[in-house]
Amino acid sequence: MDLQADDFYSALSHPMRLRALVLLQQEGELCVCELTHALALAQPVISRHLAQLKAAGLLLSRRQGLWVYYRVSDALPEWATQVIQTTIVGISNTSPFQDDRQSLQTMSDRPNQTCC
């Protein structure tokens, strides 16, 4: 993957995209509905941010029935993966990142348990 640093940082410059990426890296893979619940945003807003992260090459998606699942791309260059991991270590116990993860844990109808 030929990810340019300016594209990487531009994609993460919006707080919601950073929050979504951090949550996806921590959880592995999430459905759009899970991100909507955790980040307390409307589905079109979440989908727009996810599309921007995907266009930058940071995310991969897959469709399962009606649901679309996202995960951090495993083709990211090592430097980008290190930046994401270092960021998570530094911010995971702070608000809003900790709050996002707690909110996700309170979602009662998560996919693969029952559908959204």
TrEMBL record:
GO molecular function: DNA binding; DNA-binding transcription factor activity
Keywords, comma-separated and alphabetical: DNA-binding, Transcription, Transcription regulation
Keyword Cytoplasm: no
NADP listed as a keyword: no
Pfam families: HTH_5
HTH arsR-type domain boundaries: 1-95
Region entry Disordered, spans: 97-116
Family annotation (PANTHER family): ARSENICAL RESISTANCE OPERON REPRESSOR (PTHR33154:SF18), TRANSCRIPTIONAL REGULATOR, ARSR FAMILY (PTHR33154)
Protein name per its UniProtKB record: HTH arsR-type domain-containing protein
